[in-house]
Amino acid sequence: MPTALTDLEALLAAPDGAALRDALASRAATLESRLRAAIAAGLPRDQFAAWQAAAEAATAARAVLASHPLQTAAASPPPFASMFSTFNPR
Questions:
Q1: Is 42 left (phi over 0), alpha (psi -120 to 50) or beta?
Q2: What is the DSSP annotation of 58-85?
Q3: I need a surface site. Which of 20, 37, 46, 71 has the fewest CB within 10 A?
Q4: What are the tens digits of pLDDT across the range 16-60?
């Protein structure tokens, strides 16, 4: 079983991880859209690089979220579940 390295990975691996992933991807898409609209509308030359980098970061965040493997109930049984699958009380 893989170990989560960050709090976000742990949250994405939780049962409601798919909903969180979708919500975060939507927020990143909205941010990217707003940043690109501001860039297209024109920015002072000294601000362009920062806004471009932020838009690219939002794009990268969406890509990372899209590639994150979601665990399903079948793929991640509760800890020790296999120990009790054959347990028959007397």
A1: left
A2: HHHHHHHHHHSPPP-TTTSPPTTHHHHT
A3: 46
A4: 999 999 999 999 999 999 999 999 999 999 999 999 999 999 999
Instruction: Give the pLDDT confidence score for residue 69 in this predicted structure.
Output: 75
Rg (CA), the chain: 20
Predicted TM-score of the model (pTM)? 0.70
The C-alpha atoms of residue 12 and residue 42 are separated, in whole angstroms, by: 37
Tokens of 23: 């919500």
Q: What is the mean pLDDT of residues 50-78?
A: 81
- Are 76 and 1 in contact by the 8 Å Cβ rule? The answer is yes
Identify the helix (H) or strand (E) that includes residue 27: helix 17-41
Dihedral sign, Cα of residue 19, residue 21, residue 24, residue 28: negative
Give yes or no for a contact between 34 and 18, defined as CB atoms under 8 angstroms apart.
no
Amino acid identity of 20?
L
